[in-house]
């Protein structure tokens, strides 16, 4: 069949050109393709095409051209062109794993010409080897056939060129001869590359770690040798025996973007041995045993049989909230919360009616009092009223209570914006006590309802961690929410933030700005805080530093500006799991009151966690500007590992007990560098929960 294909190559040229007539042929083909292939097929005018069949034919034509251009770039060993095509087109658009008329794939050509950079680029894009090469013999036979038939075609064309008189046909045959001579050299180079290649060496390193009570994580690295052919896949094997007899399981990894694999479904408490082998076109190389040589699936909770701290808590709280709602719905004092007949409407006070009257509008200026403002943003735009003002409503014009307690209460309310009506009715029941606190909180709920009604939005977002105050006696509580979709609203509209800042005329002096002016000046900082506070950590085990400071009415916690919903931290490793053996070691270290590990010790050099902690502690002390010798008095929190889901866990580093919380007026000799802030503890807890 292959011989017939090569003889009928001129017919096959309708499918794929046999080769470039010059080294610039691939570049010309790619430039041609770039202008055409970027057209979106669905954007063609239906009237310009005969029908769907012709449209599909045109699409296939472009796909074929892209596939041909990729083959030419690989054959010419043009790495830049290959990378450019892989960047702009998907594997499907490039038809990456469809063989050409010679039964070869782009990856086959790259590895048999020993072009490691192009082969790696193709592998990362999802390229595969040809499935036709089921054995070394079949690959060798195929290459020999390609070389022999290419040589035969060269000889035939050479004879025709020599024997024919110069004419147009002869000129065309000379072009074909040059192309076939080039392809003959390519096939010989591929054949030589295959013959001189050898099986790969073992992976340079294999690291084994405990991922959970039923899984192990294997991380491995490429073989060090550069003399063998490109590795195209790896095999992970596991067994309960160091001789790997019997073999319990194996997995082949051909997606080489990340060289790691998690073995799942293992038995807790059982030791497993692991080894990894590499594969290239010559076959499987020798295996490399893992370090450590075996591991036992486990989790730190198995040390004392402790259940997860938060197991069932969310469900229990939802159930409790449901019970409270049920009780209030059946309370006779709570009848106003139900849909009342028209005859009961007179019971609603006028003071409540005016808040929801169509005449109720956003405020333009502030008088002395407590206010609520909602900032909704999308990209560089912000929602404003038709008067180009940030939406503001009044909470209380005679506010005189303890602000921090009411403010922290409001931050908790922000976790249930959809329940404001119910909460307002619950507070109404207790309002007869006339306490300042209840009166203020009832007014807060009224202001929230008013803001929701005017905007037509229930979810007002996250409360900024501190109110804005000015010298005129105004206090502004700010909520922030990012809008992901293109929404339109009746009472507000989108404007660019920079336009709002430049167009607003300040009514205050720079020395004593009003709360609204301060908000406009600092709005970008607040939006940045809001975005950062929603960022999540990547999977891994972290070392966190707990540092508190107290004031008259609150306790604040030190956090990084770039991730204010998490304690100051450094990453220990990518595996978040602490095994039972590692936890036992931490418990022994805590029981003898040993200092945290800051210096290497010979007898512990084989303990990976010990080494990882040394590096992490040094990095963390540098981050928070504490001399390393001071860390000798610090201690690791040994009561539990803080788990945040299945992917992130924390070990806590604590200062000496007297220094965990700095009291008002107490001097802190080690001030963190810039890039940190202190949040009220309750605000931090809410951010950490979300």
Question: What's the helix and strand layout?
Answer:
Layout: H1 2-7, H2 9-12, H3 25-37, H4 52-75, H5 79-88, H6 91-94, H7 106-112, H8 116-124, H9 136-163, H10 168-196, E1 205-212, E2 215-221, E3 233-239, E4 249-253, E5 260-263, E6 272-280, E7 283-284, E8 288-295, H11 313-329, H12 350-353, E9 369-378, E10 381-385, E11 392-396, H13 403-413, H14 420-429, H15 436-455, E12 462-463, E13 468-469, E14 474-482, E15 492-496, H16 497-503, H17 515-521, H18 523-532, E16 540-545, E17 548-550, E18 555-560, E19 568-573, H19 580-591, H20 608-623, E20 635-636, E21 642-644, E22 648-654, E23 661-662, E24 676-680, H21 681-689
Parallel strand pairs: 9-14, 16-22, 17-23
Antiparallel strand pairs: 1-2, 2-5, 3-4, 3-6, 6-7, 6-8, 9-10, 9-11, 10-15, 12-14, 13-14, 16-19, 17-18, 18-24, 20-22, 21-22
Helix pairs in contact: 3-4, 4-5, 4-7, 5-8, 7-8, 9-10, 14-15
